[in-house]
Amino acid sequence: MDEKEIRRKFMALESQRKVVEQVWQVLERFVLPYNGRFFQHAAGESSIEWRRREVFDATAVQACIQLAASIHGSLTNPAIQWFEMAWRDLEDTDNHEAQVWLEAAAARMFLELQDSNFNLEANNAYKSMTGFGTALLTQEPVNDLTEPWGGLVFSNVPLKEAFFTPTSRGACHEFFRRLEWKASQIVDKFEVVPEKIQKAYEAASDEFFTIIFCVYPRTDIDATERLLTPTNRPFGWKYVGYEDGHLYEEGGYYEMPAYAPRWAATSESQWGNGPAHYALADILTLNQLVELDLKAREKVVDPALLVQERALISTLNLAPGAQNVVRDVSQIKPFESAARFDVVESTIVRLQLAVQKYFYIDQLELKESPAMTATEVQVRYELMQRLLASTMARLKEEFLDPLLQRTFNLLYRAGELGELPAGVDLSEFDITYVGPLSRAMRFDESASIERWVTQLQLISQAGGEAEQVLLVPDWDALARRAATQLNLPTILTRPKEDVEADVQQMKDAKARQASADAAGAEATAAKDLGQAQQLRGGEPSLTGVPTV
What we know:
- By secondary structure, the protein is of the alpha+beta class.
- 48% of the residues lie in helices and 13% in strands.
- It has helices spanning 3-16, 18-30, 59-75, 90-94, 96-115, 118-132, 183-189, 195-202, 275-301, 341-358, 361-364, 374-387, 389-413, 436-460, 475-485, 496-536, and strands at 83-87, 136-141, 152-157, 162-166, 172-182, 208-217, 235-241, 247-253, 258-259, 305-307, 332-334, 429-433.
- A five-stranded antiparallel β-sheet has the order 4-5-6-7-8. A three-stranded antiparallel β-sheet has the order 3-2-9. The chain has a two-stranded antiparallel sheet with strand order 1-12.
- Helix 3 (59-75) packs across helix 6 and helix 14 (436-460) packs antiparallel against helix 15.
- The protein is flat.
């Protein structure tokens, strides 16, 4: 894609999104403050509105933060490895070396995510999803493959700067970002700049210049090699001047580095909608009602005064220590408001509860009591999976699956995962997500296995044919299943082939010992028989008469 097409597509996306941005502007004001006004450019700290008194009720703000934190804690909890990888082919699953390699790769991927700023940026992305309905997040390696591996860096791009075109499945097809940089930043970033930028830099100008960063898929690219030059990679990127179309720099990616998860989407728009969109009417009503309530209470706390005509000689001054000259002080009375604050309070509470329900706070909020049982925790997480099933599916399809796949590819290309076991195809593995509920269910199955084995042992002690119950289980499969359910790494278990070889050796040793024991018994019997014959004085005859 050339520079002219990049500018044309970017301007078209800007124009198409104007109506959506008007709604986002309202959501930013009442649900996600301090996310940057969509139609204003912050030229410096002095232009940022730190004092936002437009919000008179923060129920929606708190609910949005709580829902985002709940999703982060249940789906991508930094305290546990929240994903696993498994081979699709059962033969690869039984391949001990391949399974150990895959588990080690998953553990390394998790550590790389924890060492990066993933948790911080992912939480911001979840807030953007619950508030604006859409998030745009990028993932890049710190160093290119020409340098030593330096880790990963993530960025939750503000929606005011980000644009994208979707694929048929809703993933990010093309990614655009509007960058507002000073001349000093542009000169520091690029080796060659236009004359206009150079002059602004030399004059130490504070003027901002717009640059478009674009990531797009390339066509007719042979991506069969493990390492490719930047111009031959499947996805290209360019920095292009917004006004003049000047190409500052270009390069390439192996995979699309941008992700655009959405809470929900309609067929008419590529941009998502979330709980804040549904609750917007109640949010605005609640905010206005609280504002009116404050004004009404102000009249009660500092009421207006009713003064009879000509009762005052001087202007009424209510400042501390002021003196007022009056003819009759009894003619000055405060205005008593007949406002029904109880009705207002009940309406406010009803609206606050309604807003919280839009964000599922009533369903997801855990009890503040420390006596909550483990069963209740499991039920809460199971409830989240049921309530947010469609959203979780979108998150996995549009965000987590491509993110983990790209993380794996980056580490593999950098040689950080070691050599791939022979005969294994990298495209034949799946990613599964392991939350607290899934882990609890695994431990429950492990406990069931333990109870079953205990029952079989008790039954076998009954005598007679009861011992046959110990022949029912496949003990090898049972032991390996218990290890899996207890989350034990495969490296702690021996390969199935080695176990089978040892079992065969034990059988052969027992057979040899049995043969040796039988031969020894025969030899002993023969010896005893010979000794008995010698004592009787000869060989026995058929007639029973001793032979001489």
